[in-house]
Amino acid sequence: MAIERLRVVNRQLADAELQLDRLCKKLAEPVAADDGENVPGQRQEHRDATILDSLPGVGRVVLATMLAESPDALQRRDYHALRSLYGTAPVTRRSGKSCIVTRRRACNRRLRNAVFNWGAVAVQHDPISKAKYQALRARGHGHARALRSVVDRLLYVACTMLENGTLFDHSFAEAKKAAA
Fold first, then answer.
1. pLDDT in tens, 26-64
2. pLDDT per residue over 97-115, tens digit each?
3. Using CA of residue 49, residue 51, residue 52, residue 55, what is the dihedral sign?
């Protein structure tokens, strides 16, 4: 009885993943620069889903969550709104001579969980994110704090890429790091 239920649940999860992949692929289809019709030889612009999917660490669930939960801020390319929605912007409390910086708790929980996973995967697969994470950990920051900083950097990169309509280029990022 329990085995049959697990098989049904696993089949439903697989179907949901396939449907999510189809929807993300449909959102990532290129559009023509002028009138929306694909004409051979015409310049194509990347869609937001394609640009975000090119970032290191972004998978199907993170991409779908970002597109579903923050479409207005993504469309406006509003870095500060995205930081607040995703929970990567710190909160500073001042009173007299004291200044306390804490993590943002007033944010979208689904986005916060998605970007936490995004940061964890980016640290594993992107050398620049890994170096930033390790530097923050060496300075005494905790795991979650370091991941929020990595995601904050990636959000800035994402907003810049969305404004320029370009995909993430690993060789450009590594060349820039080497030049610095």
1. 766 665 555 555 444 444 455 788 888 888 888 888 888
2. 888 877 787 888 898 899 8
3. positive
Task: Say how far apart CA 111 and CA 83 lie, in whole Å.
Answer: 10
Per-residue H/E/C for the chain: CHHHHHHHHHHHHHHHHHHHHHHHHHHCCCEECCCCCCCCCCCEECCHHHHHHCCCCCCHHHHHHHHHHCHHHHHHCCHHHHHHHHCCCCEEEEECCEEEEECCCCCCHHHHHHHHHHHHHHHHHCHHHHHHHHHHHHCCCCHHHHHHHHHHHHHHHHHHHHHHCCCCCHHHHHHHHHHC
